[in-house]
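Example record used in the benchmark description.
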Amino acid sequence: MDVAMVGLGRMGANMARRLLRGGHRVVVHNRTFAKAEELAAEGAEPVRELADVPAALTAPRVVWLMLPYGATTQAAIDELVPRLTPGDIVVDGGNSPFQDDIERGAALAAHGIRYLDAGTSGGVWGLDVGYCLMVGGDSSAYDHVGPLLDTLAPPGHGHDYMGGHGAGHFVKMVHNGIEYGMMQAYAEGFELLEASAWELDLAAIADLWNQGSVVRSWLLELAAAALAEDPGLDRVAGYVEDTGEGRWTVEQAIAHGVPMPAIAASLFVRFRSRQQDTFSGKMLAALRNEFGGHAVKARDERPAGDQP
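Model output (structure tokens):
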């Protein structure tokens, strides 16, 4: 079937490729047009201007957005709406806050346009193994785009309908919060292994744990691969960003009164990773010195490699 993929970053470009391989007709648009032109060699039909995308599709049109959440996504929708017709479908496959979906769904429905929020997981590996798709919004639109979802997702239960507008991105938000906690647990465990009295082969341990262990997972497979390539992780800085969904998960936990200590702690550790010499750390050292006479280090006595 026909579909337009708008936004050809790491996820969007590979999703377009997977759709092409599945036999769909794929119109592509990207602000940097060269990225759209690259996909032309693989069978996609590049369109230079976003405003011209609807005219390149057959009705009912399906426009799938893979754009940064917030103003960028909203600006694209605002430009498309006057050029779409009742029955057309807009899919937001980015990581938008679910509250935005509720508002957009209602606003687009007033124009007769159907809206889906598609939480998308799979990362750079999705091209080959497929994407897990958590979809909310108009149920008739979900049924209509079924062939696209079947192609994008792994065989079997690779996509599902979560409920009304916002449900898809809400489920994806919680998914990412759980991901934060899992990654933090692995990170802490491997740090303890690295600090032990033995010269442990961390890559071999990660691989071993994936052989029937209760902590086996795809994340652990990725850990094994990273450690095999760089055993001491010397080429990696311990600076960890967050894309917003961990924060939103904790905010919703507070709003619903749901205790979430592991996920909340993993989010705060990411904040800590971006700091170097913190005031709170200095306050802790000063307090220990005041009440117990514990030694404090001057800034020029920091351990080697610890930058102020």
